[in-house]
Amino acid sequence: MVEKSAIDPSIQSSAGYFFKKEEPRGFEDTLNFGHTSLPVHNMMQHPEVENSIEVFIRKRKFIDTPHSENNATFRFACESLLRTANLLRVEVDSVDLTCAELIQSWGFARDQGQWDDLAAIFHPGGEIAVSWFRGPYVEFVAHCRNNFGRGSVAKHQLWPARVAVNGSRATAETNVAILVRQTIEGVEVDLTSNGRFLDRIEKRDGAWRMVERAALYEKDRLDPVEPSAKFDAMMAKSDAVKYPAQYRYMAYRVHAAGRSLAEPVHYDGRAETEALKMRYAAWLKGK
Fold first, then answer.
1. Residue 105 lies in a domain
2. Which domain holds residue 21?
3. In the prediction, which pLDDT does 94 show?
4. In which element (H, E) is residue 88 found?
5. pLDDT digit string (tens) for 91-137?
6. What are residue 153's DSSP bridge partners?
7. Could you identify which of 3, 184, 213, 249 might form a hypothetical disulfide with 222, taking C-beta atoms 3.0 to 4.6 angstroms apart as the criterion?
């Protein structure tokens, strides 16, 4: 849902007097033109508005009724509202696209070592939580820069994001496959970790940037680049089974690289993760 405050004033003005003032009970007014009334069930939910208007236009025989002048006014109102609904859609789609591009840019900058671009994706004071790091985003970028090309190579494959917008705030959820090539005990291996990025994104001083990201892990696997008895022996004596299945081999490879897990590592059903989701939802609503 897009709230009225989220809409550019120039777009609001295009509706002219067809927008009524918002009253304490909510934006549930009825527009009256002559003998005909058009219910507006929350004007800001523009798809519903458009559908309601189209139903009125198609089902009412305006030209055949005796009040042709009023009908002409009503038809003009309908056409204006339809144009407004389309403009609202453009406004919302534009924000969705901006947030989606921001998410895609993160993966490219992170994987290609474009550190200035990576740093610019977050607002100052932003935070991030992934398997191996939890804390200020600026420190995360510094760690990525220092570790780039040292012992492992990562690629983030990102799916299209699902974005929800409310005013100057947005949340996004994006499927991701994290691909890491690393050498463990002299064996070259490939990690494939499936999960989601949960993002909070905010518009400040006219710019949409992230303010928080949390990686949520779902499942993973570890494969040898070349099958070998050495890999089989290494896994047979490993203690990977002690980690939760959602990030078992991610944890194994993090420890093999000499790092510690940044707990809590998120996955669906974990208490801290469910609390995180609730916090994101409340923040989006302005709480």
1. no
2. 4-94
3. 85
4. helix 68-112
5. 556 888 899 999 999 999 999 999 999 999 999 999 999 999 999 99
6. 181
7. 249
At CB < 8 A and 24+ separation, what contacts does 280-286 make?
Answer: 280/171, 280/198, 280/200, 281/171, 283/169, 283/171, 283/200, 284/164, 284/166, 284/169, 284/170, 284/171, 284/200, 285/166, 286/166, 286/167, 286/169
Q: Please count the other Cβ atoms lying within 10 Å of the Cβ belonging to residue 282.
A: 10
In a domain, 10, yes or no: yes
Cβ 180 vs Cβ 195: under 8 Å = no
CB 80 within 8 A of CB 16: yes
* Same-domain status, 68 and 163: no
In this prediction, residue 12 carries a pLDDT of: 44
Distance CA 179, CA 156 (A): 6
34 close to 69: Cβ distance less than 8 angstroms: yes
Q: In Å, what is the CA distance from 127 to each residue of 40, 66, 191, 198, 215? A: 41, 64, 25, 12, 12
Query: Whole-number mean pLDDT of the chain?
Result: 79
33 close to 73: Cβ distance less than 8 angstroms: yes
Least confident of 9-13, 170-174, 219-223: 9-13
Q: Which amino acid is at 152?
A: S
The CATH number that applies at residue 171 is 3.10.450.50
Share of the chain above pLDDT 90, in %: 63
Share of the chain above pLDDT 70, in %: 68
Asked whether the beta carbons of 167 and 6 are under 8 A apart, the reply is yes
**Per-residue pLDDT at 283 exceeds 80:** yes
CA 104/CA 249 separation, integer angstroms? 25
Q: How many domains does the chain have?
A: 2
Query: Could you tell me if residue 100 is inside a domain?
Result: no
